[in-house]
Amino acid sequence: MLQRAGKKIDSKEAVLKIKDASYPAPFASELEYNSPVHGNWNIVHSGMQVPESIQIYVCADNCMRGVVLTAAEMNAADRFSFVILEEQDLLNSNLEDITVEGVTDVLNKRGDHPKAVLLFTVCLHHFVGSNLDYIYSELEHRFPDICFIRCYMDPIMQKHGLTPDQKLRKAVYDPLPDGEPDEKTVSVLGSDFALNESSDIKRLLKRYGYTVRELPTCDTWQDLLDMSKGKVFLDIYPAGKYGMETQARRLNREHLYLPGSFNYEEIEQQLKQLTDALGLPELTEAELTREKESCESALAAAKDLIGDMPVALDYLYHPRPLGLAKLLLTHGFNVKAVYLDGISPEEKDAFDWLQECAPELELIATIQVKMRMLPRGGEKEVLAIGQKAAYFSRSRHFVNLVQGEGLYGFDGIRRTAELMMEAYREEKDTEQLVVQKGWGCECCL
Amino acid sequence: MRQSYRIIPIYTADVSGVCSALYELGGMTVMHDPSGCNSTYNTHDEIRWYDQDSLIFISGLTEIDAILGNDRKFIDDIEHAARELHPKFIALAGSPIPFMNGTDFPAIARVIEVETGIPAFPVPTNGMHDYVYGAGIALEEIAKRFVEVPDSKKDGSSRSVNLLGVTPLDFGPQENVELLKANLEQYGWKVVSTWAMGDELETLQRSAEADVNLVVSAVGLRAAKVLREKFGMPYVVGTPNQWMVEEISNALDKAGVRQPEQPTVYLQNRMQQDADITLIGEPVTMGSLAAGIEKKYGCAVRVLCPLKECEALLGGKDKVLLGEEAMEEALKDAKIIVADPLYRPICPKNSSFYELPHVAFSGRIYIR
Questions:
Q1: Nearest to B63 among A90, A157, A437 (CB)
Q2: Is domain B267-360 classified as CATH 3.40.50.720?
Q3: Do A156 and B66 touch (CB under 8 A)?
Q4: How much of chain B exceeds pLDDT 90, in percent?
């Protein structure tokens, strides 16, 4: 039973018509609310993708609590250890010693011998100017056969620089060795999810006999190291771009950033970039036409089924929520609202288009404080695309998927249409599903 | 090494403790932190988050504001939110970085209170203590600032009591709290207020109308001492589980006349021999359970307490043990262990383990 607090409030500042919204920050940066939707992956989930590794965090109690229970909830407590920082360490000691001795103690107590340790230092290390080079070199000296991967849980820097998530998506590939690439291998870096087998990229590469290497499909440490064999490095997920490009430069690999899109022209262009980079024939006009016709057919089928049911979508479903809104609006869907807190530069064109062609579309914040108090849901049932949209619109008909999963290209559009139909037909237990951390990970709840 | 942990998690920390204690009182609690404290709290430490509103937010502290000491943004953001949301009070909780850079929370609270007219107070946390401290000082502040002098000492009932130290971190869902209250009511006690589940701030403000306070977890001890100092209210310590409620009721009756020298009911008449059973957890709830087991089954029980500043709430056989290493060592000879399931990996394989989930340890994992 929902119990509400306080007086009635208006929605101004948390809900805007897109015609009134500013780019790229439609909502003011103030106090933040965190909804009970937890399907997004955090650094623990992403880090667990590194095979034969463990994670060690060095931080204070409150920061530790969130990450250690993330590991416990995903039944991976045995791959997670930590060192607690206390007041005395800040006031009377130095963080280098406690970090080195703590990690050493943890590794000695564990008794196992992981191939790699993802060692997370935190804001406190940064603020006291800890010598991270010393910390890592000393640990590498003490444990020469363990690869220590430099990871960070320092969200205090995330509004003005790289997020911990972006840094992690670079760090996990730091162990990739230099070497000759394999002409018939492409490596996809930066994603939490493997590309679907039916995705445009996988189908194209399979047709020409390429091996596709991705972290989520690596079973062993050696599999991860073998990702360096890619002749071309790809990234399809925005948060992975920095890491992929950094590694490609380090290893002298050609690289492409091909972010998942809902725009036919952009998808065509990306596929051409890929075929050009690999020296392959471009997709023919006939092939592209077939792909688009297939998308149109899927979208039409979805529209026939869903009709004028209001649609709400969010940034958690896919990093391009405005692009998806545009696609759906141009195919007759009754898109009412997009839940987001900022607008990616990659979405500027879609934003401009929506301002002009769908000025009444609502942009709704997810972290603005009023979202705690505003009524969730309206009179009509909404078809929601994404967990946040489902929670805030109180929908039980929603597409339950995060971060674009393995969707890509024309296939991603078709799959989205199919998932919308599935959501329309089947009711879901929203509360049960959206509170689980790390959609797609093992979860003990 | 005390600070290194191989496999078990850590208890809920002070910042979450503050939020948990103040959750239902209609105030606004702001954690001054970049990000993590917020999601940690509402994911793992707050089982009411989905179904029950509360104004608990994070400041989103940035590196630049921390380094430049830009407290004005913090103040402005809080005041803006407060004018929109009309909280009954504003509580400010600090995290590690504000602790490091010496953020002046008392001054900030004073500025906010003057500029908004809403009572504002700091709760001096830094993310480096456990929830007993955080929730304890939060309730202590409520006792200091909000409890009113009663019009008349009595509300008409001759035997009335406040329950102090009730949060989901130790007691889980509300129905468990109702059981405690029902146990006391069976012995004729009227529960005036419960700090702080199921009651609003206005109810807590009338707490001084009760005859006596019952500290049901370590979280409530600080508030009990304040209420004793302010209003001369006596207190007793113990959790009124089904086996101990009679002793506690008797102790409350006696306390109504005079503050007992030994207020900790569950430490009286304990068995002296070596313990057959080991309980791990918060000292008052586990101590009361230990006393109940001894009374009911005649088996000696000890409590191992992994929380700080709880020595005064433990008996002769009991111990405060901080850190995984000390706990694992102490458990080596344990035959029967009752504890949160996440302790199992450090328990001897040949011991008998009985699961007793504790939200402050395993979070929401075992909440069904």
A1: A157
A2: yes
A3: yes
A4: 88
What value does the mean pLDDT take over residues B143-162? 81
Question: ω into residue B283 within 30 of 0, thus cis?
Answer: no
Taking CA–CA distances from B367, the nearest residue in chain A reads A445
Check whether domain B14-129 has CATH 3.40.50.1980, yes or no: yes
Measured between CB atoms, which of A73, A78, A90 is closest to B100? A90
CATH topology for B160-263 is Rossmann fold (3.40.50)
Asked whether this complex has an ipTM greater than 0.85, the answer is yes
A65–B345 CB contact, under 8 Å: no
All structural domains of chain A with their residue ranges:
15-36+306-434, 51-171, 182-278
Confidence band of A204 (pLDDT split at 50, 70, 90): very high
Q: Is A30 on the interface with B (CB under 8 A)?
A: yes
Tell me which of B155 and B300 has the higher pLDDT: B300
Homologous superfamily, domain A182-278: Nitrogenase molybdenum iron protein domain (3.40.50.1980)
Average pLDDT over every residue of A130-148: 97
Q: List, for residues B18-36, the tens digit of each pLDDT value.
A: 999 999 999 999 999 988 7
A-chain residues near B63 (CB < 8 A): 126, 156-157, 160-161
Q: Nearest-CA residue of chain A relative to B93?
A: A62
**How far away is chain A from the Cα of B115, in angstroms, using its nearest Cα?**
18
CB contact under 8 A, B364 and A445: yes
pLDDT for residue B23? 98
Q: Do domains B14-129 and B267-360 have the same CATH topology?
A: yes
pLDDT classification of A91: cutoffs 50, 70, 90: confident
Identical fold for domains A51-171 and A182-278, yes or no, is: yes
Asked if the Cβ–Cβ distance from A153 to B36 is below 8 Å, we say yes
CA distance A139 to chain B (A): 15
Which residue among A30, A83, A106 sits closest to B77, beta carbon to beta carbon? A30
Kindly indicate the confidence band of residue A2, based on its pLDDT and cuts at 50, 70 and 90.
very low
List the single range of A101-105, A201-205, A382-386, B265-269 with lowest mean pLDDT. Answer: B265-269
pLDDT band (50, 70, 90) for residue A5: low
The chain-wide mean pLDDT, for chain A, equals 95
Q: Do A127 and B16 touch (CB under 8 A)?
A: no
Are residues A160 and B64, on separate chains, in Cβ contact within 8 Å? Answer: yes
Closest residue in chain B to residue A58, using alpha carbons only = B4
Mean pLDDT confidence for A377-382: 89
CB contact under 8 A, B60 and A32: yes
Q: CB distance from A66 to chain B under 8 Å?
A: yes
What does the domain layout of chain B look like in residue ranges? 14-129, 160-263, 267-360
Could you please state the CATH topology (level 3) that the domain comprising A51-171 is classified under: Rossmann fold (3.40.50)
A25 near B CB under 8 A: no
Question: For residue B153, what pLDDT is reported?
Answer: 57
